[in-house]
Amino acid sequence: MLRNLVQLLIAGTFWLCLTSPTASAQFAGVDYPHPVHFLNLTIESKPVRMAYMDVKPAQPNGKTVLLLHGKNFNGYYWKTVIQWLTQRGYRAIVPDQIGWGKSSHPDIHYSFHRLAASTKLLLDTLGIPNVTVLAHSMGGMLGTRFALMYPEKVEKLVLENPIGLEDYKTFVPYQTIEQQYRKEQSATPESYRQYQKSYYPVWKPEYDDLVRVQASDLKSPDFNAIAWANAVTYLMIYEQPVCYEFSRLTTPTLLIIGQADRTVVGKNLLSNELQAQHGNYPELGKQTARLLRNGKLVELAGVGHIPHMQEPERFFKALGDFLQ
């Protein structure tokens, strides 16, 4: 019954999303730092649109960087990274994955394989043969899958505090889609703020901007579809681990790991004892680096889940050294 109701709600708002590029985040007053374009796709017989920014430098160096956002983010939060890249001659391709941001939020089977395939189609449509992938948080899981599926397209891979360095389903209690959907529907700006506070060792007022962007979904006319997509993609992370496949990566890979990060997907479901045992990014970073065939680990002391926000100078130093 709940699923049928959600499908009706999605159907009612889905066409609004298709007919107006200002739906979702932009509808609620979030302006992206660069013009947003749309790629029309058909997924499971549903017409959808994939939003993306394509930012070209004034003096191109012939290289392109693909930026993959995290679970609670979208292309907006890459704005300082885009500026840094384009100033150095890189073209930046910044998609909102299907189910996020200004893209459509269809009721489909979400998988990292599907997201990777849609992202490749975007690059192929734009005529981009290969890229460096810069992927943060959940984007790290997607970037890993993308590099495994299309190694010929990935020159280098940068994983910025990726989630999925451990298999959450081995220690986090299972939640049904309906349970997760009810949680998503009960979200408030303050609940988003409290969760995002866990990303940083010390909260600063400027971090509220990302809370504002995430909370804009609460005002969206298609919020029920967004909440359902959020619930389904939580299970995608839970059920589709990539941590067993890092040893298969052949792409030169940089791990940038903020040492103060303790992110665990589903952490609120764990006992204090289990919380202390998992999300140990200093150890997870070393463990993952040992699995990589061609990997480099940069550890950023005192930095939490979003290095490019908290410590941009140290983040860009690590990124620049690897891109050279």
TrEMBL record:
GO terms for cellular component: membrane. GO terms for molecular function: monoacylglycerol lipase activity. The keyword Cell inner membrane does not apply. It comes from the Bacteria. Residues 64-184 form the AB hydrolase-1 domain. Keywords: Hydrolase, Signal. InterPro entries: AB_hydrolase_1, AB_hydrolase_fold, AB_hydrolase_sf, Epox_hydrolase-like. One of its GO terms (biological process) is acylglycerol catabolic process. The keyword ATP-binding does not apply. Residues 1-25 form the signal peptide. It holds the Pfam family Abhydrolase_1. This is Alpha/beta fold hydrolase.
